[in-house]
Design brief:
The protein is α+β, with helices and mostly antiparallel strands. It is 45% helix and 20% strand. It is built from 12 helices and 10 strands. A hairpin with a 2-residue loop joins strand 5 and strand 6. The protein is globular, with a radius of gyration of 19 Å.
């Protein structure tokens, strides 16, 4: 299996992928440049991420942002169902998911919160997890058919996300994103290498900088510049995994001109230095699918 799984291989047939696995051996640590939701079924195993080692329980769901890495150890008939989403599609045709408060929290806010390093865990409960696993199994079958149906595939994804949403506390989801927050995020995602300052963003949306900062913390969970750092780290992941640019040039390409600062911020957000992350990278062919 490739140490870094690449979006261009996984999503050749559409922006959604699903797979069901039964693990009875170690799965080496690996990363990817897309979003992965891993729903945990029966069995035993230990999940290894940049946040440490944690025993897995039937009924958990793990969300990993692009750039986050993980592996599995001490597995004994551990059922893991993966539902993967193209990061590029989440910025375009699947962008409406961001407007659903509970899904925004599960897929964006919690995995990018300080200290999360791109990983978030939520508890569904065994029954809900089994329902989600069944939908992912059906999703895998739909995608493997001779004529995949895009509408049916999207329906499976919506059902899986709905199960995750139903397991969450509604009050914790928060209100819909403030228009100024959404506009600021769009500007940063469109040009992450720009030397953005809080004053610049606030001026663009006609708000006081301190007020915009408070809105970000309320709606996103981090400050505007910390959110920008996560965007830059995820774009750096793409370049480190998919190009031969020297690490220093990768940093400059995403807005971190100082190589030392780039290495420090990248390690804080991803759990590896840029050099360590690239060392784990292995080119994945267009027909590859993750075996775990």
């Amino acid at each position: 299996m490739a140490t870094v799984l690449h979006e261009q291989g996984l999503f050749a047939d559409g922006p959604i992928w699903g797979g069901l696995h039964r693990l009875s051996s170690k799965v080496e640590a690996h990363a990817h440049d897309f979003i992965e939701i891993a729903v945990i079924g029966p069995g035993q195993g230990t999940h290894v991420t940049a946040r440490g080692e944690h025993r897995l329980r039937h009924g958990q769901a793990v969300v990993l942002r692009p750039g986050a890495w993980h592996g599995f150890e001490d597995c004994a008939d551990l059922v893991v169902a993966n539902c993967c989403l193209s990061a590029q599609a989440l910025r375009s045709e699947l962008g409406g998911i961001y407007q659903v408060p509970v899904l925004r929290r599960l897929l964006w806010t919690e995995p990018v919160a300080p200290g999360s390093r791109g990983v978030a865990v939520t508890v569904l409960g065994p029954d809900a997890a089994d329902e989600a696993i069944d939908q992912i199994r059906r999703l895998e079958a739909d995608l493997s058919s001779a004529r995949p149906h895009a509408g049916r595939t999207l329906g499976r994804l919506v059902t899986v996300l709905g199960i995750l949403a139903d397991a969450s506390v509604p009050e914790a989801a928060g209100p819909a994103p403030h228009p100024a927050v959404a506009a600021s995020i769009a500007r940063m995602e469109a040009a992450p290498a720009e030397a953005w300052r809080l004053d610049d963003l606030a001026r663009a949306v006609s708000l006081d900088p301190d007020y915009l900062g408070r809105l970000f913390v309320r709606h996103v969970g981090v400050s505007p510049l910390n959110h920008l750092a996560r965007i830059r780290a995820e774009r750096a992941v793409d370049l480190l995994a998919g190009s031969d640019l020297p690490a220093a040039r990768v940093g400059a390409a995403v807005g971190w001109d100082n190589p030392t600062y780039f290495a420090r911020r990248f390690r804080e957000l991803v759990g590896l230095t840029p050099t360590e992350y690239r060392a784990r990278t292995r080119p994945a062919g267009g027909a590859d699918r993750p075996s775990r």
